[in-house]
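Q: What structure does this chain adopt?
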Amino acid sequence: MTSLELELRAIIEAEGPMPVSRYMALCLGHPRHGYYATRDPLGAAGDFTTAPEISQMFGELIGLWCVEAWRGMQAPKRVRLVELGPGRGTLMHDMLRAAKLEPAFEQALEVHLVETSPVLAGLQREKLAGAAVPVAWHESAADLPAGPLLMIANEFVDALPIDRFVKTAGGWCEQRIGISGEKLAFGLHPTPLSGFDESLPARLRRAAEGSVLERRNLASLREIAARIAAASGAALIVDYGHRRTSFGDTLQAVRMHEFADPLESPGLADLSAHVDFESLAALAKSEGLRVRGPIAQGVFLRRLGIEPRAERLKRKADAKVRSDIDAALARLVGSSPRHMGELFKVISFAHSTLPIGPGFDSG
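A:
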């Protein structure tokens, strides 16, 4: 039994079963025993691998997207480049290398990283130690300075805590986590929620009994959206999930690159759930922003020119490196279940006065 599980059990015994969002927040963010507080989760020696760790091409293209977005903002002399959940700093490192292609953009930059993990913040400081631009760290998006901004979030939203609701014969009930016998277990709050059906999109109001709906706290993204509405800018979100709000149980745990039981060994496995891109679009529109996407990651990266970039990298490479580049390209844009090109989606929201950015059509 992990140290965090002992603490979770004590909370449950004192207060009763806890919401899934509280469980997820403690598993990931507990200051002493939380998953992100105690480890570097990335890479072959960790539990999962993200796109920036697969290939430099990903970060370089995102960096060029930021250059074009900045130009669309009429090239302000000062712009905050914000990343939510920056991992090891690899994505920002590659973005800043691409930024050097436009010296005026690089000179305009202030980098702001929103990170709660001391372990990852330390790795970011090492990775970005030689950056030619000022870099600052924040624990919350609310701490960011005012002014025009460009925000990037890659595999950040999927780790934001979710609440889950189950349709029963009596109505929608909140799922909670309690203790059954010797184990943590899912259960349902006995009292159905009043008016829950009316809060759903019309197409989902006749749910079958047993349907599961997940909802996520998007306060950090609402903070970013409000800042963009007030001072101009754009945001780019890349994550895995579904285009429209839908039913389904998508909470998952990953440990050593394998799926695990979300209720076993809390604090030792990554927890995440599919992103509802329709809810992200609705949030942005509610702040008066213009939304582009979501589109498949593979489509987006191809439109940005990942295939010519791969060919350029291969020109002076040996056979092993060329093979690695081809494998990375396939993983980033391929549509098979083991690739990221279709499962991962890209959405952008921006100030209503800004033009369509690269990678998205004009719709």
